[in-house]
Amino acid sequence: MTENRSPFLDTIFLLRNSGSMTVFSNLQEISKKEEQEAGDYFETEFEKERLEFLSADIKCSKEAAVWGAKVLYHSAQLYLIRENTAKDLDKLIPKLKGPSDVSTILSADLSLRFLPQITSVLQTADPYDPLVKTLEDILTQFHYSGIGYPLNLEKVDWEKELQDKTYRKLYLERIVEKKAYTLAEIPYINKLLIADFGLHKDRYWQDLKTVAHGD
C-alpha cells in the first residue's frame, strides 16, 4: 500500500505496524474510498491473525473492522479537539448496527484493542467527559477489546458469552496476557482458567486465586 493516502489510513497503518499514533488536528469526514481501502487492509490483517486460531467459521467483517477503526481514530482526535464537538459525538462515534457475533467482535477488535488506552487518558483528563461514557459503553459491548479496563460486566452470562470454543480460547488468553484479575476471579472464568493451566498454573499465573464456584 502506498503511504500518505489520508490521515485516517496513515494513522491506522502506523498504529497496527508500530503501536503508535499520529493524531491529525483536522476533523474530516472519512470518504467511502478510504473506508473501502481500510476494509481491504483489515481483511488482510484479520487473515494473519486467524492463523493463530484456525477457524474456518470465523470470517472478517469489514464493516465491523472499519467501524472500530473510525471509533478509535475519532476518539484520539477528540482528545485534542473538543471545541464545538459535543453535538457531533453521535456522528463521530456511532454505534455499530446489527448483532455482535464472534466475527464482528474479532474484526472490530483489530482497532478497539487500543481503545482502552485512549479512554483511560480521557478519563484521567475529565471523568465527566461525555465521550468517556460513550467509549466505555462501546467497550462494555465489545468487552473482549476492553479486557484489563475496569468495566461493569455484571449482566454478562459468561457461559453463553463464551460458548464458542475459539472465542473462549482467545478470551482466556487475553485475560492471562493482561493479568485481568477482576475477570479471572469470576467463578466460571476462574474454573476455565484453572482447568487450562492444569499442573502448570504457577508457571502461567502464580498468584491467581482459585475461586469457589459452587457446582
Protein model, in words:
The protein has 215 residues and is mainly alpha-helical. 59% of the residues lie in helices and 0% in strands. The protein has helices at 7-18, 32-50, 62-80, 89-92, 102-112, 115-125, 130-141, 158-161, 165-178, 181-184, 187-197, 201-205. The chain is globular, with a radius of gyration of 18 Å. The relative contact order is 0.09. The model has no long low-confidence stretch (mean pLDDT 89).
Straight-line N-to-C gap: 54 Å
Name the average pLDDT: 89
Biggest sheet record = none
The fraction of residues in strands falls at under 5%
Radius of gyration: 18 Å
Number of helices: 12
Helix-residue proportion? 55-70%
Structural class from helices and strands? mainly alpha
Beta-strand segment tally? 0
Order of helices and strands, N to C?
HHHHHHHHHHHH
List low-confidence stretches: none
Shape: globular
Produce the secondary structure layout.
Blueprint: H1 7-18, H2 32-50, H3 62-80, H4 89-92, H5 102-112, H6 115-125, H7 130-141, H8 158-161, H9 165-178, H10 181-184, H11 187-197, H12 201-205
Helix pairs in contact: 2-3, 3-5, 3-6, 6-7
